[in-house]
Design a protein that fits this description.
Elements (H helix, E strand, L loop, with lengths): L1 H5 L4 E6 L6 H4 L2 E2 L2 E2 H15 L7 E5 L18 E4 L22 E4 L2 H4 L5 H15 L4
């Protein structure tokens, strides 16, 4: 974190991924909260201590997680990167308020779904534009 701050950059830390092998660690309880929630809370503390919002520490939370596994990012004060949109099953229309995040905090990641529209460049561009338009309401 110090290196990123020294160069005016930010970082993303993994909080809750949709990888099945991560569930044992991310959902483990420590001090009454999940490890995933502890990661989000630690990122929020760094963001509160730093410059005004948005903070320089964001978290990664899988968009396809079951609701009970999604940590609360409402007090994060930074971005929430959401992989898993499109081919992995995450739907753009289901993202409003995801993880308690506010408007402008959510950064949906769509890659596989867009790339599968190829190899034609116009088809890939069209797919990217469709997803851009589908998530525009999150801004």
């Amino acid at each position: 974190l110090d290196l990123a701050a020294a160069h005016g950059r930010g970082v993303f830390v993994l909080a809750a991924t949709s990888n099945p092998e991560g569930a044992g660690v991310q959902r483990a309880l420590v001090g009454g909260r999940t490890v995933a929630q502890s990661v989000v809370d630690a990122a929020a503390a760094v963001n509160r201590a730093g410059a005004p919002e948005p903070g320089s520490v964001g978290v990664v939370i899988g968009a396809t997680l079951e609701p009970a596994a999604v940590p609360d990012a409402g007090e994060l004060g930074g971005p929430v990167l959401l992989p898993g949109i499109g081919a992995q099953g995450g739907r753009p229309e289901a993202l409003a308020g995801f993880a308690g995040a506010g408007a402008g905090q959510l950064l949906p990641a769509v890659s596989r779904e867009i790339l599968r529209a190829g190899p034609d460049a116009d088809a890939v561009r069209s797919a990217a534009e469709r997803f851009r338009d589908a998530v525009a309401y999150l801004a």
